[in-house]
Specification:
With about 500 residues, this protein is an all-alpha fold. The protein contains 21 helices and no strands. About 80% of the residues lie in helices and about 0% in strands. Helix 3 crosses helix 11, helix 7 runs parallel beside helix 10 and helix 11 crosses helix 14.
Length: about 500
């Protein structure tokens, strides 16, 4: 029904705008903190987060995805899942704190005992928010989730900058990591207005736990394969090397992660409601996929094309060594742009076991690439990681789409125009820099090249017949959805959460 389409557009717009705001806040915080802290301080926190991050996929055991994917969910089931998530968060907090000494010994850095113990609190705070967030997502209340994200980010950034400015060093980064889940948890509890009941052995819990277990195992293996580079670099090349590599990876990856997170949450919730309507499911997936690719490709490629000037302008001269990592890591982000959204397809159709098989099959390729590059330092690791990602991209897309309503040809058609446009934009920007770059200051050169890059990309994306309507449809329809009252939108969203078969 039309109301579904309107609320989905509204939700997606709110989530995307919020993530755009969070992206600017994150980049701004990195710029400010990079001038207040040294690469070594970033590296120390990066060592701890790289190791304990292996446990991140276990913080909700995939129960949020399992909860959202269900056609209906009872109050008993939600309450039982809540207490399971709290228990898991508490256990992980204790486990990480107990392992803090081992983490310190592994890296031979005494400061990591207290850093790791403090970061462990994030698991406890996150566990208390999983099911409240899931309820808000099932009801498509992404506007309030967007507001919570922005408020949490603003508050934690102010705390971190204040601590860094007063000489607290790496504790500013630790506080930033811990305060985000704490403030988010408070926000979703207030927004959901739901108090869990005592746990019971509710029907259907076992099936959801099995689904969540597959999602968790897949996420854990994937996280390990994509973060072993930071673990090994910290161990064998030290905190400074990891600090430079980690900041480059964060800056180049943040735009793509934010956009995928924003659209992915909405897409997964909507696709889960559309799984019994193949025609509309396929159309909605390909539309979301096209928008995400069109938005994420420029950000990742711009970081590679303008690497030297970006590092100089954003981070300052002491971070000049990070520019090479921008260029070497760019292919990994491009592959993530292209293959990452396939997880929406698999999870919304309940094909979590296939997702696990894909992860188990291709994780060793990433690890091999990283290990082979390790003797050559951070540059070798970045190069090996990128080659592995490139080799695995097409097989991952093909395997994900196999047997579903979405064909590989459909995905290819959605990619042709953005890929051609981004290639043309890169060529124009590089030519501009070659002709005029030596005459300009870094910030002026970056502004000029960025303008030509953006205009060329937009021209290639929008000017061909029929393309403008595709990419601007969202903007045209937002005012229509804005005319709906908030009560109508939310009541309509609640109705969808109670039925499986819907029509946009």
């Amino acid at each position: 029904m039309q109301n579904f389409k309107e609320v989905a557009i509204r939700a997606g717009s709110a989530r995307t705008c919020a993530q755009a705001g969070c992206l600017l806040l994150r980049v701004g915080s990195v710029i400010l903190l990079a001038r207040l802290l040294d690469p070594t301080e970033f590296g120390l926190v990066g060592m701890a987060t790289a190791v304990i991050g292996v446990l991140n996929p276990f913080r909700d055991l995939g129960l949020k995805i399992a909860s959202i994917q269900q056609a209906t969910i009872t109050e008993e089931q939600s309450s039982t899942l809540f207490w399971l998530n709290v228990l898991i968060g508490g256990v992980l907090t204790v486990v990480v704190a107990a392992l803090s000494g081992a983490v310190s010994a592994f890296y031979q850095e005494p400061q990591l005992v207290w850093i790791t113990s403090a970061l462990a609190l994030g698991f406890l705070f996150s566990g208390a928010s999983v099911q409240h967030t899931a309820r808000l997502q099932r009801e498509m209340r992404f506007q309030i989730l967007a507001l919570i994200d922005v408020l949490a980010m603003v508050t934690t950034i102010l705390i971190a900058i204040g601590l860094a400015a007063t000489g607290c060093g790496y504790w500013a980064l630790v506080a930033m990591s811990v305060c985000v889940p704490l403030i988010t948890t408070i926000g979703v509890w207030l927004a959901a207005g739901w108090v869990p009941r005592r746990p019971r052995c509710a029907p259907g819990i076992q099936a959801m736990m099995l689904m969540g277990g597959a999602v968790t195992l897949s996420s854990a293996v994937g996280y390990f394969a994509t973060n072993i580079d930071k673990i090994l670099l910290g161990r064998f090349w030290g905190a400074e090397a990891l600090g430079l590599y980690g900041r480059a990876a964060q800056l180049i990856g943040t735009p793509t992660e934010n956009i995928n997170f924003a659209v992915g949450d909405v897409a997964f919730a909507a696709l889960s409601r559309l799984q019994d309507d193949p025609i509309r499911f396929k159309r909605y997936f390909l539309k979301c996929y096209s928008h995400v690719v069109a938005l994420t490709l420029p950000a990742s490629n711009a970081c590679a094309v303008f690497a030297d000037d970006l590092v100089y302008v954003l981070l300052g001269p002491k971070w000049a060594g990070a520019a090479d990592f921008f260029r070497l890591l760019a292919p990994t982000i491009v592959v993530f742009c292209l293959a990452g959204p396939m997880s929406w397809l698999l999870n919304s159709l309940g094909l979590v076991r296939r997702g696990l098989k894909i992860t188990l099959a291709f994780a060793p390729l990433k690890v091999i690439g990283i290990v082979l590059g390790l003797p050559y330092g951070p540059e070798g690791v970045a190069f090996g990681y990128s080659i592995a990602m490139i080799l695995g991209a097409l097989p991952v897309i093909a395997w994900s789409a196999h047997g579903t309503v979405v064909r590989v040809q459909d995905v290819g058609l959605a990619l042709i125009r953005p890929l051609i446009s981004i290639f043309a934009a890169a060529c124009v920007a590089l030519a501009t820099g070659y002709l005029f770059g030596s005459l300009l200051s870094p910030i002026t050169r970056l502004s000029l090249e960025g303008a030509f890059f953006g205009l060329t990309y937009l021209a290639g994306l929008l000017l061909p017949a029929g393309r403008t309507s595709l990419y601007l449809e969202l903007l045209r329809e937002i005012p229509l959805s804005g005319r709906l009252g908030i009560r109508k939108r939310l009541s309509g969203a609640t109705a969808w959460s109670q039925q499986r078969k819907v029509m946009p």
